Amino acid sequence: MKVSMRMIAALSAGFVALSSYSPAFAQTSGDSLKQAEKQLNDNSEALDRKEKQKQAVHTAVQKMEHELANTEALIKKNENDYASIQKKIQETNELIEEKKIEIVALQDKVINREEIMYARLTALQENDHADIVIHTLVNAESFSNLFERIGAVATLLNADNDILEQQEADLKQIEEDKKEIDKQEALLKEQQLALSSSGAKLEEALLQRQTQMASLKSEYEKVSAEVTLAEKEKSVLQSQVKAIETSIKKEQDAAKARAAKALAERKKEEAARAAEASARAEAEKARKAAQAAPAKKKQTAAVPAVSKPAEKPVQEKPVQDESKVFYVTATAYSHEDTASDFTAIGINIKENANMKLIAVDPKIIPLGSKVWVEGYGVAIAGDTGGAIKNHKIDVLMPNSAEARKWGRKTVKIEILD
C-alpha cells in the first residue's frame, strides 16, 4: 500500500516536472526559431539590396561597354580618316612634285625665250628696225617676192609679240601654280592637325572609359562575391530554421508521447489502486464473516487468497531463461593459431575454417550447446581453452588476420539449447 502510494506520488511529480519542462523547452526553442527567422529575414533583405546593387552595376557595365564600343568605332574611323588624309597628302605631294617639275620646265622655257629675245633685241638695236624692214622690201626681186618678204617681215614681227605674250603667260602660270601648291599644302596640314587632335582626344576618352570600366568590373566582382556570401548565409540560416522547426516538432511529438505515457501510467495506477481497494474491501468482508461464524475459522483462514489479484501484476520470464542471457568478453582465434586442428568435441577447424564455433568454459556454457553471439551469429560451443575461464569466449575465424580484426569485445550471448 505504502509502496504503491509512493510510486503514484513519484509518477505524479514526474508528470508535473515533465509538464513544466516541455513549455520551458518550447519557449526556448520558439525564441531560437524567432531569432533565426529574424536573421533569415534580415539576410533576405540584405540579399535583395545586394542583388539590386549588382543589377545596377551590371547595367552601368553594359552602358560603359556600349560607350567603349562607340569610342573604339570613332577611333577606328578617325584612324581611317587620318590614313585617308595621309594618302591624300602623299598624292598631293606627288602632284606638287609633278607641278614643280612643270614649273622648272616653264622656268627653263622662260630663260630660253629671254636669251632669244635678248639676241633679237641686240640685233635690232645694232641695225635700225625700220632700216631692216625697208632693206628687206627694197631688195625684193619681183612683185611676188615683195609680197613674200612683206609676209615674212610681218611674221617675224608677230613672232616677237607671241614670244612676249607666251613669256608673260608662263610667268603668270608659274606664280599661280606656286600659290595653289602652298594652298593645298596648308589645307592638308590643317586637316592632319585636326585629325591628330581628334585622335588624341578620342584616345584620352578611351583611356578614361577603360579606367571606369575596370572600376565598374571590380565593383561588380565585389558585389557578386557579397551576393554569393549572402546566398550562402541564407542557405545556412534556412537550414538552421528548418533544423529548429524539426527539433521543435520532435520535442512536441516526444512531449505528447510522454504525456500519453504518463496518462497511461496514471490510469494504470488508478486501476491498481481500485483493484487494491476492492481487494481490501473483500478481505474486510471476509474478516467480518469469519468473526460472525467462529465455527468456520479454518475455512476463513483461506480467505486472504482473495487478495491475489493485487499480486498478479507482471508475468516475467522464468529465472532459468534469464540465466541463459548474459554478457561475456569475446576474443578470436583460427586454426592458424592452434597447435591442433581438432576441437574439444572433435571438429576439424582447418577443414571447417568458416564454421561458426566458439571456445567456452563448460561450467558457464555446456559443450555442444547452440549459442547466439552478438555480432557473430549462431554458433556451436565446440571447444575449450586454457585461457577461456568464466565469462570469456573465443570465436572461430577463418584465419589469423580476421581474428586480429575481431580484437576484443564485450558482447551479449544467449544459450539457445
Number of strands: 6
The CATH superfamily name of the largest domain is Methyl-accepting chemotaxis protein
Spatial strand sequence of the major β-sheet: 1-5-2-4-3-6
Radius of gyration: 65 Å
Q: Which blocks of ≥5 consecutive residues have pLDDT under 50?
A: 295-320
The geometry reads as elongated
Number of helices: 6
Determine the structural class based on helices, strands and strand pairing.
alpha/beta
- The domain tally reads 2
Keywords: Coiled coil, Signal
GO molecular function: hydrolase activity, hydrolyzing O-glycosyl compounds
InterPro entries: 3D_dom (IPR010611), 3D_YorM (IPR059180), PcsB_CC (IPR057309), Resuscitation_pf_RpfB (IPR051933), RlpA-like_sf (IPR036908)
GO biological process, one term: peptidoglycan turnover
